[in-house]
Specification:
8 strands; about 15% strand; about 325 residues; 11 helices; alpha/beta; globular; Arginase, Chain A
């Protein structure tokens, strides 16, 4: 009873002035071939996400799940492009609405193709946006270079203005123009990069930190180095697109394309805490949790990791919530 009373006391007095957050669920799995990833938004919500965010003193509005109508579109080596185009267009509109409502955006996928829509919406509102792509994979393939044809391996290439000439005309994607400069994109956590993707990274001098860089410099310095490259004047709106497979599979086993040797959960949380402290983190995608992969323990472990990452991005501090100015002592009745 005493522990609950103290916890309630700190939660009440530790609330800062309310910050607004909008949640958008994207139950989308057509950017890859493994069923189940589309179930993640509702699974993560049911694990208590909204209550956890409200416990940080946040004003949370859930905009619900993206719903869309699709048309049949045929483009070589891009199956389900009609679904990708329709879903991401609707997501872009919902992200724009949340930002214009004065709310930072949390987008819960779904596979990583949804980053096309979330980043497009962010750029259309805030214009000058810097993007951190936290992922084991570079997602820089085009339909001509991808071995799998999975669109969740193509979103950065679709968004980058420097790569516009490498694409054919894509029916259904006229709403989305490649308006992000690749100079404004930074990678953290890479450890499974295709040959063509490496060529693109080297050709354009893309800011890219693999796991060997994290091991050499530490996650704190890697985050700072990435920000100095993609946001040198500390004035851009920040967008983080966080693929749960950036974490080591021991930390997040229920995901479709796991790669050993990834970030620890502690490193992922530290990364998000650092980005939150910039006061410019206005959008976060959390993608690629797949509740159909692994047993219940694995799924629960992965969902818990996802919620820890989200909390860190929206203000949770492992030091505890700050007490407001003017309060210097505990009221005696707290302990009676």
């Amino acid at each position: 009873m005493l522990a609950r009373t103290v916890k309630h006391f700190f939660r009440k007095i530790g609330e800062r002035q309310y910050s607004k957050v909008g949640i958008i669920g994207v139950p989308f799995d057509k950017g890859q071939r493994k069923a189940g990833v589309g179930e993640a938004p509702d699974i993560i919500r049911s694990a208590g996400l909204v209550n956890e965010l409200q416990g940080l003193g946040l004003n949370v509005h859930d905009y619900g799940n993206v719903q869309y109508e699709t048309a049949s579109i045929n483009v070589d080596n891009m199956p389900n492009l009609g679904d990708v185009a329709a879903c991401t267009q609707k997501l872009s509109e919902m992200v724009q609405q949340s930002l214009r409502d004065g709310r930072r955006v949390l987008t819960i996928g779904g596979d990583h193709s949804i980053g096309i829509g979330s980043i497009d919406g962010h750029v259309k509102v805030d214009k000058d946006v810097a993007i951190l792509w936290i992922d084991a994979h570079a997602d820089l393939n085009t339909n001509k270079t991808s071995e799998s044809g999975n669109v969740h391996g193509m979103p950065v290439a679709l968004l980058a203005s420097e790569l516009a000439d490498y694409w054919p005309y894509l029916p259904g994607m006229d709403w989305q123009q490649p308006i992000v400069s690749i100079r404004n994109v930074g990678y953290i956590g890479l450890r499974s990069v295709d040959r063509y993707e490496r060529l693109v990274i080297e050709k354009f001098g893309i800011t890219a930190f693999g796991m060997e860089d994290v091991e050499r410099f530490g996650i704190h310095e890697v985050v700072n180095m990435a920000l100095r490259k993609i946001d040198p004047d500390n004035n851009r709106s920040l967008h983080v697109s966080f693929d749960i497979d950036s974490l080591d599979p021991l930390e997040a086993p229920s995901t479709g394309t796991p790669v050993r040797g990834g970030l620890s959960l502690r490193e992922g949380i530290h990364l998000m805490e650092d980005l939150y402290r910039t006061n410019r983190l206005n959008a976060l995608d959390l993608v690629e949790v797949n509740p159909r992969i692994g047993d219940k323990k694995s799924v629960d472990f992965t969902v818990e990791a996802a919620i820890h990452i989200i909390q860190a991005g929206f203000g949770y501090s492992r030091r505890g919530l700050k007490v407001p100015e003017g309060i210097t002592d505990l009221p005696l009745q707290t302990f009676r």
